[in-house]
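Key idea: predict the complex, not the pieces.
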Amino acid sequence: MSVSLRKARTIIRKTLEKGREMELKPLSVVVLDAGGHVQAFEREDGASPGRFGIAQGKAYGSIMLGLPGSAQKARADEQAYFMIAMNGVYDGKVVPVPGGILMRDRKGVIIGAVGVTGDTSDNDVIAGLAGIAAAGLTGDA
Amino acid sequence: MSVSLRKARTIIRKTLEKGREMELKPLSVVVLDAGGHVQAFEREDGASPGRFGIAQGKAYGSIMLGLPGSAQKARADEQAYFMIAMNGVYDGKVVPVPGGILMRDRKGVIIGAVGVTGDTSDNDVIAGLAGIAAAGLTGDA
Amino acid sequence: MSVSLRKARTIIRKTLEKGREMELKPLSVVVLDAGGHVQAFEREDGASPGRFGIAQGKAYGSIMLGLPGSAQKARADEQAYFMIAMNGVYDGKVVPVPGGILMRDRKGVIIGAVGVTGDTSDNDVIAGLAGIAAAGLTGDA
Amino acid sequence: MSVSLRKARTIIRKTLEKGREMELKPLSVVVLDAGGHVQAFEREDGASPGRFGIAQGKAYGSIMLGLPGSAQKARADEQAYFMIAMNGVYDGKVVPVPGGILMRDRKGVIIGAVGVTGDTSDNDVIAGLAGIAAAGLTGDA
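Result:
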């Protein structure tokens, strides 16, 4: 099972709406499937050009390691070189900070991940969780 | 000048609608800005997981070289090693076949590119041009 | 849905057994999940050391493109530079010859891929299909 | 001399059995030959998809540097940038934590390495050493 394009669109739209409501800086949001492959992405006007890579890195690392961004950050805080090594293992596509959010089905199986970037990592998470909830799914940030 | 997210959304939706109308295989569509950076992307359900890379490669090569996919294909047909070298120069992100479409403003300045993949290259182009036209822009395929 | 480790083991063992029965050169066999990630791999004694990469490339390209090795070979035969570009897009992990075999569930959804290398591409396919059949699955070579 | 596929299978099976006996999280285990090339690999059901890269990185760094994971970790703890540089030198395939285990013959010559990942690094080592011992070899963790 993976997230449908329809749900991915809802997640992205509602994440961006939440960002506008909170008056955050321009956000970029990616939705990856359970294998870490890009399903949908949007970058708001005014965001810096390289935001796709950050959004992807937050979500891709979450999928590859089975750990959301906050757990990756905790590991990086205590053993930075390990998360740096993970970035090497996964070809530069691991960004170990909050904003990488896992999505699970009712049995707890990971069905995809969302990556949000643009404001503070904590605000990125709030917006992303709102988007995931709007699609009827539960996020693990 | 670059394409707004609003226009990018229109381009993607209308490209996908055209694909459904033509009964094409599931499509994937990326919109890049004038610097070749990802603005928006959607992959239809049923498409193979790696379609982001192909869509990006069609559009990114078009931006980097200032040549749409059909011109790249013509060059590849007569001098394959040159386009293969371009693929190396741009880190594997050049896919020299139709489906990479440049977008220009009224003065002819390139403001972005669209990459479409999923059906035959020629059908990918028809769908992409329909999407670009629906956003009030002119595509150079 | 993806292939379980138990099925992956059966596929590999039966592929290798078929290879011994046919008196093929030492084989190497990888099983990837639906996202293209390695589930299991074995390299027979006497095989050259780099066989993991070839087995992976045959199977990974099949997953990413949704096309088995023989279809990739047909494309490469008529438009070599396209498949070379695919190798660039997917970081050198596309080997477009027979021996990359897709596995589908009853609804036709791709649930993984097998990559076999060591003998002629055609013999690699025969052995791989025998392994997949032994696991109760259908291979699309 | 290198580890035979038969021994590699025993190592992997017994490592996984030890993990089940200890009730560890799902494990992934790779066996590399004396040149650092993949001989065999298995990922248990429920493990995150990217575990091959971590298992490989633990074992590959051990082979390339002639140092098991715990010695690499000691070096990383006192001079993180050095082990980060090693990750770059070896194309992202060095993961400097316990779980990379060298195997030696009776004369002390390195004949391969095992990489285990999935639980805590210390538990990964316990399981891996059990697997190596079951194959009649001595592990240097």
